[in-house]
Amino acid sequence: MQNCVRVELAKAQKIKQELIEGEALDHKYNVLQEEKYIYFPVTEKYQGKTVKKEVKPRTRKLSAQPFKEVLKEILNEEELEQAKTAYEVVGTIAIMEVPDVLEDKAKQIGEALLKSNPLLKTVVKKSSKHDGVYRTQKMTVLAGDNTKVAMYKENNCNITLDVEQVYFSARLSTERKRISEQVKKDEDILVMFSGAAPYPCILSKNTKAKEIIGIEINPKGHEYGLQNIKQNKNTNVKLFCGDVRSIAPQLHKTFDRIIMPLPKTAEEYLDITLPLAKKGCTIHMYAFYHEDEFKRATAEIDKYCKQQEREYKILKIVKCGQHAPRTYRICVDFEVLN
Predict the structure, then answer these.
(1) What is the dihedral of CA 327, 323, 136, 157, to 10 degrees?
(2) Model confidence over 79-89: pLDDT tens digits?
(3) Is residue 264 scored above 80 in pLDDT?
(4) Is the pLDDT of residue 61 over 70?
(5) 285 neighbors 297 (Cβ within 8 angstroms)
């Protein structure tokens, strides 16, 4: 019997990443799945609550070592201080940043990450920031399989996408679950900026929504979205490719729930969002703000609602991840009252 952390399936990807980064996942044993839960075997470094489970030892030998320990083999003390050990995992692809001063050792750092985490098959590094209309970023394969296409599992869905060509964040898995739990039977839902369709797929698979419409301007994102709704058998999802400003008004439809997962400039689309909202519609608007400036998001909502004479009520502001020191991705949930 081994010490394990019990995690809901919807939170498994996020918790696994946290365990790996904290060097607390015990790679000597297989992960166990029972009904709605995943059990991760953990090492003595894990300080939280555990349960005893009978898990099978891995049948193949693994050279797993803590990432920081492996880095010590290739970096000196000064370089170790500059190295970034945090990374995001999408399927079996790890996405990491390598400081310019360590560029000559980038491939070695990628190999070190593969060595430290046997669940990974590919390591890529960010070669640019999210940029352009499509919010994508260039990436370079450092180690492992030469691919940027990830197959990712979340909330009972399989999501396929190219991490370089499509904007996507695995760290929003808990947020997508949070919203799906709010959806009522027979809701009509609009997902703006739908990307490879993670929100439409997950809402379709886990709720009793009537119809879910997604709009995505990136042709590659739309292409993967069509592939994903097909492989997940989402029969109540329709996806449109194009500018949301052009397509949304042409739908001639209003919605019970509208999701706006475009963090940088979502507020700028409230002018076309509000006319699409039924009375009682819940809108989920995402943004990046310093923790002292969250009121700027609600001020934007207030401005546009007043312009269109729509009454509203702020339901909650949820932190969905840290972007920089004291700066967060937030979701403002608000209800349109008239």
Answers:
(1) -120
(2) 999 999 989 99
(3) no
(4) no
(5) yes
Amino acid symbol at 70:
V
Report the CATH number at residue 25: 3.30.70.2580
CA distances 95 to 68, 86, 126, 201, Å, are 16, 9, 7, 23
Q: Which two structure tokens, joined as six digits, stand for 139?
A: 């990436």
Q: How far apart are CA 56 and CA 246, in angstroms?
A: 54
In a domain, 297, yes or no: yes
d(CA 178, CA 182): 7
| Coil, helix or strand at residue 336 | strand
Q: DSSP 3-state helix, strand, coil percentages of the chain (rounded to 5)?
A: 30, 35, 35
Show the tokens assigned to 136: 């994508």
28 — pLDDT class (breaks 50, 70, 90): confident
Structure-token pair, residue 288: 């990046």
β pairing state of 255-260 and 188-192: parallel
The Cα–Cα gap between 244 and 170 comes to 23
Whether 213 is covered by a domain: the verdict is: yes
Q: What is the CA radius of gyration of the chain?
A: 21
Which CATH number does the domain housing residue 75 bear? 3.30.300.110
260: left (phi over 0), alpha (psi -120 to 50) or beta: beta
Gap between the Cα atoms of 221 and 240, Å rounded: 11
What is the domain count for the chain?
A: 3
- pLDDT one-digit tens code per residue, 105-126: 999 999 999 989 888 999 999 9
CATH code for the domain in which residue 275 is found: 3.40.50.150
Tell me, what amino acid is at 206?
N
User: How far from chain centre, in Å, is Cα 227?
Assistant: 18
Per the structure, the complete domain to which residue 28 belongs is given by: 2-53
Query: Would you say residue 15 lies in a domain?
Result: yes
Give the whole-angstrom CA distance, residue 96 versus residue 204: 31
Long-range CB pairs of 44-50, under 8 A, 24+ apart, other chains included: 46/3, 46/5, 46/19, 46/22, 48/5, 49/5, 50/3, 50/4, 50/5
Pairwise CA distance, residues 43 & 23, whole Å: 8
